[in-house]
Design a protein that fits this description.
The chain is built from 14 helices and 31 strands. It has about 575 residues and is an alpha+beta fold. The protein folds into three domains: about 270 residues, BirA Bifunctional Protein, domain 2, CATH 3.30.930; about 130 residues, YbaK protein (Alpha-Beta Complex), CATH 3.90.960.10; about 100 residues, Anticodon-binding domain (Rossmann fold), CATH 3.40.50. The longest helix has 21 residues. The protein starts with 20 loop residues before the first helix and ends with a helix.
């Protein structure tokens, strides 16, 4: 392919709002252009990379008998109303009406559509298991699109769905999907972790996330420095030391005027935060709940929602604290709390002895507060956000934190959607049962950014060989020299014959500009055709290496193959 015929609008200056390295480099290299906030055009080079990613996905899906299909992007709102997500998904839904004023949405995901599709098709256990997937553009009205392709309003996604008659088949497909994902990300050259994740509004009780390590990542990954344990910060847990046991001391009040924060309480009373019970007033599914946690921890709302199987959680307002909890903001505590208020406590509080808590009175705290004697708890559970350095839950090593980009997610949905849509099958005994589902997603366009975040240097991108828009970049130093153009044509033909994709820079540009743009594009193999073209000698250089070597045309393919053994 002649570079003069490809639209590659490179930039010398990067827009000031491009924060992520991947966003900056893809703009500079003419891979993408923003059309509106969170909406991008994929120009020829980016599209070729996307097609390579999609090819890898399709190849790995075929190995596990997953079958490709394609659903509509415009969906009737009634499907989402039937599942309940039309109301709960929030403002991220793009909503529209047709000329007859019927409600539709632009599909952000397709659980409802797929379930509706198969409900009258997979009506016997004999027709399952089945795995269907699609690669399609999705739409989510993000409040703050940012980081280029990492958080957009329109994006390309792989989404797969499994339908089984029993949990054994679900587990088998779930494991096959995890292994297929690993192969996909390995082939994409990614440094990633498989972590325990939260199913969120997707439903289900089994979830794993795949996260690419990157400083720009919006997710915090918690992992053990001595084992394979890894989890999203929202799901991570740890082993905490038992609280020291003491003899119960008498409960008594302490005057603490204006002391409403843990740090202030620590300073005034000269105590460790581990001795303090932090009381958090929450409204969960419109019911008042007090969450208790040790003073050095924070309540993890995702864990709390999962423990209580709740849909909605929010902090109580000062007015609600006063009127419903009958307490004072900053001075809340579990002692003498109204029996109408449910109390759930973190495990860190269970054996806390002679603790300090709010007294539910203005400017007053209590000391020597003890569970059972002074207050009761409806449920103890892990509802805390872990801290770096704590003991890993598998008792191997300590917890470390890093940042990551979510690039994939697999869920065991169970029967959440099949029950909503009455998608039943007849089992071996002729009895109707709801179809058991799994859901599997990969952010295809997001992968583009994640790969660039990990594979770049000061000069530009460095694409893995299997993903590169072109694998070889032939640069004609002087297009006025016929022998250089003739050799370039011969080299292109040879490389193409041996399976390489080739871009030929035939432009009338200065060599320095061509070399700089070649680095920016990140094409793995650069072949420079210059002064020794008459002798059939070219220079070969890999994108991730500094040295170029001279080689004859006849030895070029063998030389490239040898060099590529050490590429990435």
């Amino acid at each position: 392919m002649k570079q003069s015929q490809v639209m590659i609008p490179t930039l010398k200056e990067v827009p000031s709002d491009a924060e992520a390295v991947s966003h900056q480099l893809m703009l500079r290299a003419g891979f993408i252009r923003q059309i509106s906030a969170g909406v991008y055009a994929y120009l020829p080079l980016a599209l070729r990379v996307l097609q390579n990613i999609e090819r890898i996905v399709r190849e790995e899906m075929e190995k596990i008998d997953a079958v490709e299909t394609l659903m509509p992007a415009i969906l009737p709102a009634e499907l989402w109303q039937q599942s309940g997500r039309y109301a709960t998904y929030g403002d991220n839904l793009f909503k529209l009406k047709d000329r007859h004023q019927r409600d539709f949405i632009l599909g952000p995901t397709h659980e409802e559509t797929m379930t509706y599709l198969i409900k009258d098709v997979l009506n016997s256990y004999k027709t399952m298991p089945k795995v269907l997937y699609q690669i399609q553009t999705k739409y989510r009205d993000e409040d703050r699109p940012r980081y280029g392709l990492l958080r957009g309003r329109e994006f390309i996604m792989y989404d797969g769905y499994s339908f089984t008659s029993n949990t054994d088949d679900l587990d088998k497909i779930f494991d096959q999907m995890e292994q297929a994902y690993r192969k996909i990300y390995d082939r994409c050259g990614l440094d990633y972790r498989v972590i325990l994740g939260d199913s969120g509004d997707m439903g289900g009780n089994g979830s794993k996330e795949f996260s690419a390590i990157a400083e720009i990542g919006e997710d915090t990954i918690v992992y053990s420095d001595m084992s394979d344990y890894a989890a999203n910060i929202e799901m991570a847990t740890s082993i905490i030391a038992d609280n020291p046991t003491e003899k119960f001391a008498p409960l008594q009040s302490i005057s603490t005027p204006g002391v409403t924060a843990i740090d202030s309480l620590v300073e005034q009373l000269q105590v460790e935060p581990q001795r303090i019970i932090k009381s958090v007033a929450l409204i969960i599914d419109e019911k008042p709940v007090m969450a208790l946690i040790r003073g050095d921890y924070d309540v993890n709302e995702v864990k709390l929602k999962n423990v209580l199987h709740a849909d909605d959680i929010r902090p109580a307002t000062d007015e609600e604290i006063s009127q419903i909890f009958k307490s004072a903001p900053g001075f809340m505590g579990p002692v003498n709390l109204s029996s109408d208020i449910s109390i759930i406590a973190d495990l860190s509080v269970r054996n806390l002895c002679n603790a300090i808590s709010g007294a539910n009175q203005q400017d007053t705290h209590l000391e020597n507060v003890n569970f059972e004697r002074d207050y009761q708890v409806e449920q103890f559970a892990d509802i805390r956000t872990v801290k770096m350095g704590e003991l890993s839950p598998d008792n191997k090593g300590t917890l470390q934190f890093t940042r990551g980009i979510e690039i994939g997610h697999v869920f065991k949905l169970g029967t959440k959607y099949s029950q909503s849509f009455q998608a039943d099958f007849l089992d071996e005994n002729g009895h109707p049962q709801p179809i058991i589902m799994g859901c599997y997603g990969i952010g295809i366009s997001r992968l583009l950014s994640a790969i660039v975040e990990q594979h770049n240097d000061q000069d530009g991108m460095i694409w893995p060989l299997e993903l590169a828009p072109y694998q070889a970049h032939i640069i004609i130093v002087n297009t006025k020299k016929q022998e250089q153009k003739d050799l370039a044509a011969a080299v292109e033909q040879t490389l193409t014959h041996h399976g390489f994709s080739v871009l030929v820079d035939d432009r009338k540009q200065r060599p320095g500009v061509k070399f700089a743009e070649s680095d920016l594009f990140g094409i793995p193999v650069r072949i420079i055709i210059g002064k020794k073209a008459a002798d059939d000698i070219v220079e070969v250089k890999l994108r991730n290496q500094d040295e170029a070597i001279e080689v004859s045309q006849t030895d070029l393919v063998d030389t490239i193959n040898i060099l590529l053994k050490n590429y990435m």
